[in-house]
Amino acid sequence: MIGGLGKMNRMLLAGVCAVALLATGVTAAKAGDDSEDLDLKVKWKGAPEFSSKDGAFKFKVRGRIMVDYTSADQDFAITGEPDINATELRRGRLGAEGVVYHDVKYKFEYDFAGDGEVTDAYLEYTGLPVSIILGQYKTPNSLEELTSSRFITFMERAAITDAFDLERQLGAGLSYKKEQWTAAAGIFGTNIDDEAPDEGTTFAARVTAAPILTDRKVVHLGASYRGRDNGDPEDLGLYEYRQRGADFHLTDRFVDTGEIGESDDLFGLEGAVVLGSFSVQGEYMQLTSEVPADIDFTTHSPTYDGWYVSASWFITGEMRNYDEGEFDRVKVNRPVFEGGPGAWQIAGRYDTIDLSEGGCEECGEQNTWLIGLNWHLNDYTRLMLNVNQSHIEGGVNDGADITGVGMRAQVDW
Amino acid sequence: MIGGLGKMNRMLLAGVCAVALLATGVTAAKAGDDSEDLDLKVKWKGAPEFSSKDGAFKFKVRGRIMVDYTSADQDFAITGEPDINATELRRGRLGAEGVVYHDVKYKFEYDFAGDGEVTDAYLEYTGLPVSIILGQYKTPNSLEELTSSRFITFMERAAITDAFDLERQLGAGLSYKKEQWTAAAGIFGTNIDDEAPDEGTTFAARVTAAPILTDRKVVHLGASYRGRDNGDPEDLGLYEYRQRGADFHLTDRFVDTGEIGESDDLFGLEGAVVLGSFSVQGEYMQLTSEVPADIDFTTHSPTYDGWYVSASWFITGEMRNYDEGEFDRVKVNRPVFEGGPGAWQIAGRYDTIDLSEGGCEECGEQNTWLIGLNWHLNDYTRLMLNVNQSHIEGGVNDGADITGVGMRAQVDW
Amino acid sequence: MIGGLGKMNRMLLAGVCAVALLATGVTAAKAGDDSEDLDLKVKWKGAPEFSSKDGAFKFKVRGRIMVDYTSADQDFAITGEPDINATELRRGRLGAEGVVYHDVKYKFEYDFAGDGEVTDAYLEYTGLPVSIILGQYKTPNSLEELTSSRFITFMERAAITDAFDLERQLGAGLSYKKEQWTAAAGIFGTNIDDEAPDEGTTFAARVTAAPILTDRKVVHLGASYRGRDNGDPEDLGLYEYRQRGADFHLTDRFVDTGEIGESDDLFGLEGAVVLGSFSVQGEYMQLTSEVPADIDFTTHSPTYDGWYVSASWFITGEMRNYDEGEFDRVKVNRPVFEGGPGAWQIAGRYDTIDLSEGGCEECGEQNTWLIGLNWHLNDYTRLMLNVNQSHIEGGVNDGADITGVGMRAQVDW
After folding, report:
1. Count of CA atoms in the C-beta half-sphere (13 A) of A55
2. Given pLDDT bands bounded at 50, 70 and 90, which one contains residue C231?
3. C141 burial class (0-12, 13-18, 19+ CB within 10 angstroms)?
4. Does the beta-carbon distance from B135 to A67 stay under 8 Å?
5. What was the pLDDT predicted at B246?
6. Considering only CA atoms, which of B303, B265, B306, B304 is closest in space to residue B283?
7. Is residue B82's pLDDT more than 80?
8. What Cα–Cα distance (Å) separates residue A283 from each residue in A148, A220, A231, A270, A279?
9. Beta carbons of B362 and B394 less than 8 angstroms apart
10. Smallest Cβ distance to B121: which of A83, A89, A413?
11. Non-local CB neighbours of B40 within 8 Å, separated by 6+ positions
């Protein structure tokens, strides 16, 4: 077919072009090598998440800033507590997370706000269908508690999470997560900050299901349990149940059982529905505490409970982002840049905690209304405005109303 | 023109070379794709500043180490305070800064030295001509205070900055910066470390101009104001004005008004001239404090003032680097590597603070001479040597001379 | 040779192929430029170590998590101390290290465990054959102390290191390291946490040699000295020598001289042999303390000593990794991934500390047996199990046996 071209010519042509190929191949390969040498991938998640090309290693710095201003009237006439007019670094965290060789994840974070505390400090083995977690992390209880402070709808979580002392504890746990259901259980000592020769034991477990889970619709159901035994009560003191006025962080506590519990059992039920930009969420929790005989209490197995219901709507069309039994980062449709409005969310919550059994001085019930407005400038930044009012029933603060306004500027990376 | 080459041959040639082109093109494109995939840019600023290619995201870890040795004679015969002979971690900071989506910057840093404290913790919206800052940062007062501790000429700032309590406070501010002039104002609560139900309010503002600003010449002029009101004085205590002997960090305080102020007004004037490797800088500040009637003071509106003048010269030819109303990092001409000498700077300062009104025990005046020698090994490392002497006039320490030597090794990233 | 191809044809061929070359060359060069623009190299060392292409700058974030569970019987009948049953964050560190311009290295790290402390905080000039170090780092004493807590064989170091107060101190030092021998010396003030007007002076030095050093064989020998003088004893208090029961971190101290020393001299000898996966290590230390006349002690120059011998064997064939006078990270042959077993190490130690001179209440001797099992999942993760027993001789706790089990999960980056 090559006809008029002689053998020599064909060889020459092939040769010259081979050289061309080779030369450019070498050049290209060199360029290729260069970028091959750089064993690096990057995903921007606020800060960059770096990983090696084979995924054996990952690393990301993480952090968050939340700065607040709170103004509140604590009903001085009844409670004797003054007005609040204060700024606060609510959270200022820095930490790191990563993977060291395929199956071993770690996370370490410190909160520099207030007196400072280690938050997450654990390693997780992910090489089995069920993850194994060793270290300090949140006991598996409550949708509200497990949702990161970066992603909760109001400035502070519902009363039950603080009143019943949901927190990170140091222990060993298992976690199984599928898109539509999750199960987790663990056995724990205390939080890192609570040091004692005998720490006692905490056991906690949670199961959740999302029977409906589509792009714009979620139905979430869950139940959890936590049982704590305080070891030698002389070491750690007794458990105390209490909550701050109007669910703010800087107000005082007007319902407070005092230190009474040497062990307790907590049961919780949770549910949430997301319908596009609209969502509803609620939880009920009941705790029974064992009170030692030498404490002056009208019952030695008091039962406390509380619940909340919250609803929110994104005016700008975004939706709360459900991910394996928790709420995750909201993706802003049109961030504030080149005319984007950001995401605007309005929300309301009714929140009640009943600590009235036992007849102590501040044994009472607190009912709180909250209205919230959130402006997400982008996926990592939001401004929050909360207007809250609590009404106290029972105890020495009976009839008190705590009312206030809170503002937050938040960024995370 | 192609004459003797037949159509087939021409087609063949085109075909073969097309294959060559294609093949190499594919290879090259692949290499190109690879580096395109890595959405990453890097600038080395001590530590790397990473950014996404579109600049929507940036991230940099930041930190500094300053280790000091101080030897000082505190004039025991008069003051009763012993000699100083001590090492110190003067600053040990770690933090992060970045951009999350174009217009939102953040900065968070913690100083682990001493008892530890959060330094900067803010987010800044840069999408408007005027920046909006929310969080904790330095109130806009004083060239000396606003210049980073990494770039000040002497180991410690001039007396006025500490005596009049210039510091970071948590608030909201505006900042406008042009090459030749700047304006900033903010409204603040207290520093994060000062917690109180009622924090009062601080207002601060500053304007600066650089009427002359060329490559090797700068004239800087500025004025600032700060007004503080201590809210409920029972919450935070009263303001105290005082300064350490010889402007060292480890000496004791020999001029000290005690806690007296429930509000105060501070005015400041500042100027600086850079002429190549030579520079002069000076400031004057005056503060009037309101003292409650129940404090035993000879006047209830005492006025304090202070000023300093400093001069420095880079023997090796570098210059102080002026940037929008502050001094920034010195660029070393020939760093210490392969025979480079680094940058050598000599400097002197006269520094006075007059806290003598009011007739309190340590109400007095402190005048200080400082001589400094700085050796910048490179842009991020320097060794400092300071020889300082203070003379006290008035109060119980009248006539005391505090004399000492300080040394610092500093690195930042 | 080109015969049958006409000149025009040859020119055409050359031209077309030149275009091909050029085109692909340009493309390739462009790809090359792109990766050239990114002035970045990366090495994965848990977290990525970034560097500029010319090596002038390096940067790496570093950190470690060690979470422990300890259960111990403290022989209540004799010592009066209760059982231990507790979790703990033993170490939770975050820091940074890097190079700023070729010859200046730095390292800064903070340990958030317990009350928190700055660990390393120094800069190092490496442009001379002998390194110059300024800042806080470990005084050059003891193979066991100088080996990172990430790489020691047992959960806690041998008794001599704590009893004789080996720690980081802030100072200036020289270090010379060759593959087969090292020498280091420094002059120090106190640890950053110990603040005092007069810190006194510490001098320390160490030499080591590795006369045999092959791929699978190491013989290490070393000697060190440390002399401390406590400056003004009123400032810092006196030196105290003591050790916790069974070398655990959460047990109480049953041998304890109380605060007695105003100065002391410490001599140490060390040796280690690695024979493939088997290794032996031992040290002897002797300390003489000067006790002030006004302290009720039977001798005012008591001499204390202690020693340990440990042996370990990697069942899975790994070896302890010797590097310039210290032990370094173990390289796991087959990490836990796709069926790898990780590295399994068994170890034993005998450990004794004799603080019996002086006739104080708890002046006594503690002898401890330890058995350890370590499972390295990969180079950066390990689980540890220790079974320890101490026997006390002398003092008020004479005859007491402290026995316990410790477990640790460790990850570093």
Report:
1. 3
2. confident
3. buried
4. yes
5. 98
6. B306
7. yes
8. 17, 11, 29, 4, 14
9. no
10. A89
11. A40, A42, A48, B50, B51, B52, B53, C38, C40
What average pLDDT does chain A have? 92
Check residue C125 and give its pLDDT.
98
Q: Is B288 exposed, middle or buried (0-12, 13-18, 19+ CB in 10 A)?
A: middle
Structure confidence by residue, pLDDT tens digits, A233-252 = 777 889 999 999 999 999 99
Mean pLDDT of chain C: 92
A chain contacts of residue C249, beta-carbon cutoff 8 Å: none
Could you give the CA distance from residue C386 to residue C404 in angstroms, rounded to a whole number?
A: 8
Q: C39 CB near a chain A CB, below 8 Å?
A: no
pLDDT of residue A381: 98
Cβ contacts of A335 within 8 Å, gap of 6 or more: A342, A377, A378, A379, B101, B102
Q: What is the mean pLDDT of residues A307-327?
A: 97
Q: Which two tokens stand for residue C51?
A: 């560097």
How far A31 CA sits from the closest chain B CA (Å)?
6
Q: Cβ distance A330 to A320 under 8 Å?
A: yes
Interface of C with A in 87-116 (CB under 8 A): 87-89, 92, 94, 112-113, 116
The pair of structure tokens assigned to A101 is 């060789």
Whether C375 shows a pLDDT value over 50: the answer reads: yes
Please determine, for residue C364, whether its predicted confidence score (pLDDT) is greater than 70. yes
Contact A104 C378 (CB under 8 A): yes
In contact, A33 and A67? CB cutoff 8 Å:
no
Which B positions 60-79 lie with beta carbon below 8 A of chain A? 61
Yes or no, beta carbons of B84 and C197 under 8 Å apart:
yes
CB atoms within 10 A of CB C54: 10
pLDDT at B390: 98
**Confidence band for B232, pLDDT divided at 50, 70 and 90:** confident
Q: How many CB atoms lie within 10 A of CB C344?
A: 16
Q: Where does B255-346 have alpha helices with state H?
A: none
pTM: 0.91
Contact B381 C100 (CB under 8 A): yes
Strand ranges (DSSP E) for B80-180? 84-100, 104-111, 117-125, 131-138, 168-177
Q: C118, C135, C112, C139: which is closest to B114 by C-alpha? A: C118
Given a cut of 60, whether residue B35 has pLDDT beyond it is: no
Residue A5 has pLDDT above 70, yes or no: no
Q: Which of A7, A27, A35 to mutate to test the interface with B (most CBs of B within 10 A)?
A: A35
ipTM for the predicted complex comes to 0.90
Please spell the DSSP secondary structure of A394-406, one letter per residue: SSTTTT-EEEEEE
Backbone angles phi, psi at C34, to 5 degrees: -55, -50
On whether any CB of chain A is under 8 Å from the CB of B164, the answer is no
Contacts of A37 in chain B (CB under 8 A): none
- Which residue, among C315, C348, C352, has the nearest Cα to C330 in the 3D structure? C315
Compute φ and ψ for C233, nearest 5 degrees.
Answer: -60, -25
Q: Mean pLDDT over residues B145-161, rounded? A: 98
The DSSP symbol for A194 reads -
| Nearest residue, CB atoms, A86 vs list B6, B16, B198 | B198
Question: How far is the alpha carbon of A374 from chain B, nearest alpha carbon, in Å?
Answer: 16
Q: What is the DSSP letter of B198?
A: B
Q: What is the mean pLDDT of chain B?
A: 92
Whether A85 shows a pLDDT value over 70: the answer reads yes
Contacting residues of A for C108, CB less than 8 Å apart: none
Task: Decide if B35 and C39 are in contact by the 8 Å CB cutoff.
Answer: no
Q: With contacts defined as CB-CB under 8 Å, which chain C residues touch B67?
A: 121-122, 134-136, 170
Q: Is the dihedral of CA B34, B36, B40, B45 positive or negative?
A: positive
